[in-house]
């Protein structure tokens, strides 16, 4: 019997396992081998930003950044994640002053600079993606607008960071049950029983369900969490192209898309299409639809998203738009990245109503990855009833108002359900 049973070996699950492992017997269950191919955090890279206009998340992000940059604690050794992080900076297209995103960005920078002493060196450039020559790689760019360069930002090497955390948990004695998903969770005042797809059972004192977008398939979360699919594609660089672009920052255009420094092991450059998403109509947006599980129906990404990606290449990286044979470069490994959304982008970290000893952590809303080093300490505090009342209230199981959903850093123009998509 385990003290703590964690279902889901992604960011929230592994982070919590690392915290509990110092004092408890922990089991982690995942439908696939970690890093799971259906997890949003299984990826080449993810943005690790500090910008929040909410003081709680800003303080958590600053705390997480210290771990990414090498600090340790009583539960995480110094340098654990430094090989899975690059403090590469970010260039962002400054949005119109009338937009909610502009207000969000300015409030965030002010908060970080004045209260936390971060993001002090931020500069803006008009129609100059090279940022006055800092990034000569972009001298061929045709992109126009006002660009803001913030060097206090980076990327996590996503799948690699999960593997590092998994190995650390193993070294602490955590048991991993992989390639065998949870079928149901039953609870009582005495503990929990997690039944697996194989028919096996895992008993524990408490359970944490941390399955990201897939959480509603295991728990009735009463429409408080929905699954949103975002569009991702990649291009393969040659060795020469990789050498040219290996040291670029993240470049972020919230209206068209954004791209990352290329992956050093594969020379693959990841590009995301902004301002569009998908959902599953049959479940009223509750459940994700994974290409891994439905390869014949969830095939790729929309044709329109590929157009966006190529538009981004033409404006920002024109020398990468065409391959050596003169043909348009293939947009490869296209996929939908499913995230777990709440209507206000706040996490849900709470005991599930009418399910004693069963806790849930979800609602990452696309901004949870950066907290891999530290979110587990907050989840553990809630599970042991030690979380501050302010945070417990913020992350409580609650009624969501989807009609008035406002996430100020997200701009969305187009939203079609999965069965409407014209696949690339």
UniProtKB/TrEMBL annotation:
GO terms for molecular function: flavin adenine dinucleotide binding; saccharopine oxidase activity; sarcosine oxidase activity. The keyword Flavoprotein applies. Its cofactor is FAD. Residues 3-379 form the FAD dependent oxidoreductase domain. Pfam families: DAO. Keywords: FAD, Flavoprotein, Oxidoreductase. Belongs to the MSOX/MTOX family. This is LANO_0D08812g1_1. It comes from Lachancea nothofagi CBS 11611. The lineage of its organism: Eukaryota, Fungi, Dikarya, Ascomycota, Saccharomycotina.
């Amino acid at each position: 019997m385990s003290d703590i049973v964690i279902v889901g070996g992604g960011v929230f699950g592994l982070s919590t396992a690392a915290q509990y492992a110092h004092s408890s017997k922990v089991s982690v269950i995942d439908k696939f081998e970690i890093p799971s191919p259906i997890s949003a955090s299984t990826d080449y890279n993810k943005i690790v930003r500090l910008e929040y206009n909410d003081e709680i998340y800003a303080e958590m992000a600053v705390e997480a950044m210290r771990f990414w940059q090498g600090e340790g604690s009583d539960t995480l050794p110094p340098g654990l994640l430094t090989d899975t992080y690059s403090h590469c900076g970010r260039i962002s297209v400054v949005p119109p002053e009338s937009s909610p995103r502009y207000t969000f960005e300015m409030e965030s920078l002010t908060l970080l600079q004045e209260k936390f002493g971060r993001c002090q060196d931020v500069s803006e450039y008009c129609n100059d993606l090279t940022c006055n020559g800092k990034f000569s790689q972009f001298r061929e760019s045709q992109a126009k607008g006002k660009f803001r360069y913030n060097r206090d930002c980076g990327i996590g090497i996503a799948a690699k960071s999960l593997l590092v955390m998994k190995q650390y948990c193993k070294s602490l004695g955590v048991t991993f049950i992989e390639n065998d998903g949870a079928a149901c969770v039953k609870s009582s005042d005495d503990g929990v029983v997690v039944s697996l797809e194989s028919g096996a059972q895992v008993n524990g004192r408490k359970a944490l369900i941390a399955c990201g977008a897939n959480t509603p398939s295991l728990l009735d979360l009463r429409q408080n969490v929905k699954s949103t699919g975002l569009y991702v594609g990649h291009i393969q660089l040659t060795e020469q192209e990789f050498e040219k672009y290996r040291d670029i920052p993240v470049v972020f255009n919230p209206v068209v898309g954004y791209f990352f420094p290329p992956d050093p092991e594969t020379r693959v450059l990841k590009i995301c299409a902004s301002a569009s998403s998908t959902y599953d109509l049959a479940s009223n947006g509750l459940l994700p639809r994974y290409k891994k599980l439905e390869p014949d129906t969830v095939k790729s990404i929309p044709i329109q998203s590929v157009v966006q990606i190529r538009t981004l290449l033409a404006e920002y990286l024109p020398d990468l738009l065409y391959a050596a044979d003169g043909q348009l470069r293939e947009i490869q490994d296209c996929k939908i990245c499913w995230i777990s959304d709440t209507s206000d982008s706040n996490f849900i970290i709470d005991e599930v109503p009418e399910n004693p000893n069963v806790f849930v952590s979800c609602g990452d809303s696309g901004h949870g990855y950066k907290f891999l080093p530290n979110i587990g300490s907050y989840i553990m505090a809630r599970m042991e009833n030690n979380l501050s009342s302010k945070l417990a209230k913020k992350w409580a199981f609650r009624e969501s108002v989807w009609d008035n959903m406002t996430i100020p850093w997200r701009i969305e123009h187009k939203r079609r359900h999965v069965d409407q998509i014209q696949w690339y």
